[in-house]
Amino acid sequence: MTDAKPRWNRRKEARPAEIVDAAIDVFVENGFAGTKLTEVAQRAGVAKGTLYLYFETKEDLFRAAARQALATNLDAIEKVAAGFDGTITDLVPMLLKRAAGRMGDSRIPAIVRMVLAESRAFPDLARIWHDEVVARVLTLLTRLVAEAQARGEVRPGDPKLLALSIAGPMLVGVLFHEVFGAESPFAPDLDALATHHSEAVLQGIVDR
Amino acid sequence: MTDAKPRWNRRKEARPAEIVDAAIDVFVENGFAGTKLTEVAQRAGVAKGTLYLYFETKEDLFRAAARQALATNLDAIEKVAAGFDGTITDLVPMLLKRAAGRMGDSRIPAIVRMVLAESRAFPDLARIWHDEVVARVLTLLTRLVAEAQARGEVRPGDPKLLALSIAGPMLVGVLFHEVFGAESPFAPDLDALATHHSEAVLQGIVDR
Amino acid sequence: MTDAKPRWNRRKEARPAEIVDAAIDVFVENGFAGTKLTEVAQRAGVAKGTLYLYFETKEDLFRAAARQALATNLDAIEKVAAGFDGTITDLVPMLLKRAAGRMGDSRIPAIVRMVLAESRAFPDLARIWHDEVVARVLTLLTRLVAEAQARGEVRPGDPKLLALSIAGPMLVGVLFHEVFGAESPFAPDLDALATHHSEAVLQGIVDR
Amino acid sequence: MTDAKPRWNRRKEARPAEIVDAAIDVFVENGFAGTKLTEVAQRAGVAKGTLYLYFETKEDLFRAAARQALATNLDAIEKVAAGFDGTITDLVPMLLKRAAGRMGDSRIPAIVRMVLAESRAFPDLARIWHDEVVARVLTLLTRLVAEAQARGEVRPGDPKLLALSIAGPMLVGVLFHEVFGAESPFAPDLDALATHHSEAVLQGIVDR
DNA sequence: AATGAATGAGGATTCATTCAT
DNA sequence: AATGAATGAATCCTCATTCAT
């Protein structure tokens, strides 16, 4: 019966995921350039060299992290997209509420911000995020609007632009919290924003 | 008054501004960490050492650049805020149009993106931008909405959230261009977005 | 006699030899510093860790390789030395021819070059090679010359230096090929060099 | 009048040469891989970073060093080639003597050995050395032999091979000292070797 | 006996900052 | 005031070596 702690364990299967997970945290906190691999290693509980067993370079690790982070978001999108049926008047509030809920706690806002920050230096990642996340969400919303227009529920107009009218304020709200924190008097309560904006964009803010 | 040719002091006072101006460009292009002071110096037409006559550290220079960039934005805000009078139905389209125009060409979107990207590492800058730009814009819009509510033009509701409903999509549109470029099928035409969104947020997208 | 398949001990005794053999190749190709043990292991068909069952350090393995490579050369020397009898006028051409033949194909030249290259960092190896190879060859030749002098075949003079006169050009020819390749217009044909030099050193190049 | 030692001096002109000079020493001592740039810097009396003001990479510095080392040799060749006139019987002893003298003290033997050692990893350098040093020497000697043949002084035969007969033993002698040191009983006295070999190659070692 | 995942010391390289000119 | 050569701390990455399996 040994209880001597081995200096390390072999975890060939689990390692890459553990490392990427730690990497996401550190990259999100410090950005690409600001991240020291030493810290990633520490956070992942491995030695510096171990990173290089699974990733060729820091950039590689960053890409892997960004891709993995994407998975989180895809997951969130799917959750939001589920039950995409009904009149637009019912759907928009529900979708925005769900989005508000999803964003509230998760790492998603921080990840989104990191992608914004680093997309300049990693245009290929920007493209992937565009195709996998942004385009997907906008396609969903655009289709929703177009179908509603076909049913006469929504007045004419470019559905892609209307999709932005629907989703834009929520994204801005999320980024606001991420960038300026919750202390600002303008920091929106995301749930309230979902409610207010649903009504605003559906019925208009003008009183009649 | 001597006629000795001063070798350097051609523009003793202009120097800092020239440097900061060059710095904005380079920081916007490469981010804080990605920026080499050599390049800033080159772009400003001075030697590396000269930077240190006016700024203590790279961070200092960055702060100065971010502050200066802010001025550009304040200017834009003022332009947009000018003629802030009339019914909300008239004002919103005009404001969004103007904003779309301002953003179309200028360095503003790139600057905004840089601020988003670096605000994590420079929270004090985030605060300044919050106070000087974001709060100002939102205050303006919030007041506009509140006054319209007082006049019975706009239905009740938290005017701060409604302000986000009005402005959010435009900001998202601008960031979209900045991050993903104009080639995406979802890249919004900013002018069209201004028009569409004005109607959407004022009258609602629901047909009646 | 069991038929349990031993997974590893196929050739318990052969292993070190196989490893050393692979090591010679890799060290010769890449030099000591340029050699990665991973590659040696791969080439030997074993795992990296296995090397350490037989050799304490990379240096150790290198020494073993250099020693083993020496054996090859001793063998070659013996072949050349065989039938060391007759007048010097008969022997020199035969010896040089044989040397030319030996060197033509084998790994020997590359090994010699490696020893030259690494002897600075491994003076002990230099000594071994000196004692086992160089001194042996030179002793042989020196004795040959001395005996011929005793018989009055060869004129007086330090036989050790004359031995260099006999052997030197062949070594230089071999190194030339090794270092500069065969494409150079000066790359000597080793067989022709053996013939020419035999005559030159025996009869002199001066016409009489 | 200050006598405070400045922490450093500006020596834009002198620096590269100083660095290369130090580099030659260190590379010759430790080989390419074994050389630490820290040591080169120390030896050159500059900081590590300074190396990179003048040379892009370690390889670059090595190439520069090898090229500079070449200059030394070219110089030596020219000295030896000077006064290349007279009968071959006069010339050969003189040339070999001079070569022996040149080699005795200088860094040349060590440099030659380094080139042998590293030419495998730097084939381009091998080529340069071939063209600039080896080919030049052999051309000189070959011409000398050919002209002597034309005058009937030297018997027929490929002059390029005879050039090797003349020069080879000296090179081997030099390398012997470099690789095995002067303690070996076989370590040739270079001057004596020059004398002995001159006679051997001119008149032959066979007594008549 | 054999494996190969894990380790971490070591070294090349970058670049903000300093300071002799 | 201006310069840019010089500095050296900081960090990525490699690879010989160890050791849990």
Provide structural commentary.
The structure is a homotetramer of 208-residue chains. Chain A is built from nine helices and no strands. The model of chain A has no long low-confidence stretch (mean pLDDT 91). The longest helix of chain A is centred in the middle third of the chain and has 28 residues, at 123-150. Helices cover 73% and strands 0% of the residues of chain A. Chain A has 208 residues and is mainly alpha-helical. Chain A has two domains: 11-55, Homeodomain-like (Arc Repressor Mutant, subunit A), CATH 1.10.10; 66-203, Tetracycline Repressor, domain 2 (Orthogonal Bundle). Chain A has helices at residues 15-34, 37-44, 48-54, 58-81, 88-105, 108-118, 123-150, 159-180, 190-203. Chains C and D meet through α1, α6, α7, α8 and α9 of C and α1, α6, α7, α8 and α9 of D. Chain A binds a DNA duplex (21 and 21 nucleotides) through residues 6-12, 15, 36-38, 46-53, 57-58.
Topology of this structure?
The structure is a homotetramer of 208-residue chains.
Chain A: H1 15-34, H2 37-44, H3 48-54, H4 58-81, H5 88-105, H6 108-118, H7 123-150, H8 159-180, H9 190-203
Chain A binds a DNA duplex (21 and 21 nucleotides) through residues 6-12, 15, 36-38, 46-53, 57-58.
